[in-house]
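User: Sequence in, structure out. Go.
Assistant: Echoing your sequence, followed by the structure tokens.
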Amino acid sequence: QVQLVESGGGLVQAGASLRLSCVDSRRTVGGYVMGWFRQAPGKEREFVAAIDWSSSNTYYADSVKGRFTISRDNAKNTGYLQMNSLKPEDTAIYYCAAGWRWSSNVLVQTTSYPYWGQGTQVTVSS
């Protein structure tokens, strides 16, 4: 089982940077894909980025490509989402998730991830 805990959210001004962390606190299984999603008020949860277990492959939503970087350190059971050049439209609750399927058409689906963290709020002011 995987138990994910996010941290690192906060209130920043447009143009600033934040780094989110996602720790697997149970550390009982490995091999999973880590994904990041976000959900703004009144909107559906949307895909942000994903990384495979070996960090060989990453995948980004077009809206964050070039600004966000996903990474992971399996020795620390931790994944990261470095967010640069933040915009007000990036404001949302950010969730990390774990799954075992790697394909571009399934990575973006919330149903591909059986395990989720509780979320961390990111607010970007203009």
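User: And one key feature?
Assistant: The chain has a mean pLDDT of 96.
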